[in-house]
UniProtKB/TrEMBL annotation:
The lineage of its organism: Bacteria, Bacillati, Bacillota, Bacilli, Bacillales. PANTHER family: ABC TRANSPORTER PERMEASE, TRANSPORTER, PERMEASE PROTEIN, PUTATIVE-RELATED. It is found in: Cell membrane. This is D-methionine transport system permease protein. It comes from the Bacteria. It is a multi-pass membrane protein. It comes from Salinibacillus kushneri. Coiled coil: none annotated. Residues 16-210 form the ABC transmembrane type-1 domain. Belongs to the binding-protein-dependent transport system permease family. CysTW subfamily.
């Protein structure tokens, strides 16, 4: 069956919107989980502000375990959980659940890397001035690492764009679903090319915005 491109563009626009919804929602909730997770892994590690080997030795392996599972496997493995949370295992809403679980530990590790880049002398100076651990975390560590955090969240966002495309394998919606349904199953090469071009444009736009924001923050 030949595609009517005069009307098919509406499907492409809807798929693009679904991709933005999936990535945006997943990034929001994954960030809410991943940011404090990354901070906790940093400040509880040996020799840091709130050293606690028990918490560190629990959180660190948890992050490693979830990061070790390929997204396509995670997507299928948690279908019962996804169905329990949102009532379905297919569609845009359902894809958000595995995307959050996939991205949260990844963001946690990126946050950890950003915070560990800070010169220990900055922390020592804050401690010598009588700052509490909470003040050091939120008034020294996070502000000092903000430029790096922006870049790392940009990386996480791009990773979510790619993962959202993979969600199309199980009917997750978005551009990935469109590419699978038309480009792969129906051998519509033009659809595949269009979806690839759109994904490239989205990724390049996100990277450019992230680079610009990081540069602005670094100059302040």
């Amino acid at each position: 069956m030949q595609i009517n491109w005069d009307t098919f563009w509406l499907e492409i626009l809807q798929a693009t919107a679904d991709t933005f919804i999936m990535v945006g929602a997943a990034l929001l909730f994954a960030g809410i989980i991943g940011l404090p997770l990354g901070i906790a892994v940093v400040v509880t590690r040996p020799g840091h502000l709130l050293e606690n080997k028990y918490i560190f030795n629990i959180l660190n392996p948890i992050i490693n375990i979830f990061r070790s599972v390929p997204f396509i496997i995670l997507l299928v493995a948690i279908i019962p959980f996804t169905r329990f949370v949102v009532g379905t295992s297919i569609g845009t809403t359902a894809a958000i659940v595995p995307l959050i679980i996939y991205a949260a530990p990844y963001i946690g590790r990126l946050v950890e890397n950003s915070l560990l880049e800070i010169d220990p002398g900055v922390i020592e100076a804050a401690e010598s001035m009588g700052a509490t651990p909470n003040q050091i975390i939120f008034r020294v560590l996070v502000p000092e690492a903000l430029s790096s955090l922006v870049l790392n969240f940009t990386i996480a966002t791009i990773g979510l764009v790619g993962a959202s495309a993979m969600a199309g394998v199980v009917g997750g919606g978005g551009l990935g679903d469109l590419a699978i349904a038309y480009g792969y199953q129906r051998f519509e090469t033009e659809v595949m090319i269009v979806t690839v071009v759109l994904l490239v444009i989205i990724v390049q736009s996100i990277q450019s915005i992230g680079n610009r924001l990081s540069h602005i923050i670094r100059r302040r």
